[in-house]
């Protein structure tokens, strides 16, 4: 006897209430099986989602670490480049300052020669002209490199740029005025490399009117 005939026989022997209960039980078992299968599927999918989320977090952490490393490396490269540029600029300024200092001695000597030479002596006209041309060419070359003279004649005394060698009372001249420049000062690209040596006027002594 087949299962189907047995089932049919059982259905024939069962009461309608029993048959309904059996059908409900079978339906519940099928629903439970489907629920368990769905739960298993969801659990597997959730596990995959969890794995993907962990992988994403790890990837984001790696990217963040690499980004920080790149930023730090770039900052270090920028610092090295900046320090190198500063070192080059310092070396350049030092070289120019040393060069200018050597040339200023020659400028001073040429200016003193012009001051001391007898300009009334016609026999020395060619020498004077040669010294003047040499001095002019030298100062022009220095100016191209940013070397500028500080000649404060008749200007207020400024201790940042001038060095007072002596003071003298001069009638009609305001105190702290440069009345003579014994040696010019010089700047290199706006920075003082040698102060001007000057003579400064001073105030007349006060008169005690009660005397």
TrEMBL record:
Which UniProt key words apply to this protein? Chaperone, Cytoplasm, Stress response
CDD domains hit by this protein: GrpE (cd00446)
Task: Spell out the Pfam families in the cross-references.
Answer: GrpE (PF01025)
Major localization class: cytoplasm
Subcellular locations according to the entry: Cytoplasm
- The superkingdom listed in its UniProt entry is Bacteria
**PROSITE patterns xref list:** GRPE
Assembly and binders: Homodimer.
Report the sequence similarity comment from the record.
Belongs to the GrpE family.
Q: Its function?
A: Participates actively in the response to hyperosmotic and heat shock by preventing the aggregation of stress-denatured proteins, in association with DnaK and GrpE. It is the nucleotide exchange factor for DnaK and may function as a thermosensor. Unfolded proteins bind initially to DnaJ; upon interaction with the DnaJ-bound protein, DnaK hydrolyzes its bound ATP, resulting in the formation of a stable complex. GrpE releases ADP from DnaK; ATP binding to DnaK triggers the release of the substrate protein, thus completing the reaction cycle.
Indicate what this protein is called per its UniProt record.
Answer: Protein GrpE
């Amino acid at each position: 006897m087949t299962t189907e005939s047995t089932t049919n026989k059982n259905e024939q022997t069962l009461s309608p209430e029993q048959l309904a209960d059996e059908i409900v039980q079978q339906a519940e078992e099928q629903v439970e099986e489907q629920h368990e299968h769905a739960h298993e599927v969801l659990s597997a999918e959730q596990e995959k989602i969890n794995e993907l989320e962990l992988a994403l977090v790890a990837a984001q952490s790696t990217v963040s670490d690499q980004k920080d490393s790149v930023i730090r490396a770039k900052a270090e490269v920028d610092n090295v480049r900046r320090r190198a540029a500063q070192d080059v600029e310092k070396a350049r300024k030092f070289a120019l300052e040393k060069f200018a200092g050597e040339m200023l001695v020659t400028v001073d000597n040429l200016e003193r020669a012009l001051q001391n030479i007898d300009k009334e002596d016609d026999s020395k006209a060619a020498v004077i002209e040669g010294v003047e041309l040499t001095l002019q060419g030298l100062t022009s070359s220095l100016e191209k490199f940013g070397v500028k003279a500080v000649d404060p004649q008749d200007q207020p005394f400024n201790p940042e740029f001038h060095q007072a060698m002596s003071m003298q009372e001069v009638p009609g001249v305001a105190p702290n005025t440069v009345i003579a420049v014994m040696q010019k000062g010089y700047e290199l690209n706006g920075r003082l490399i040698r102060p001007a040596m000057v003579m400064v006027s001073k105030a007349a002594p006060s008169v005690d009117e009660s005397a």
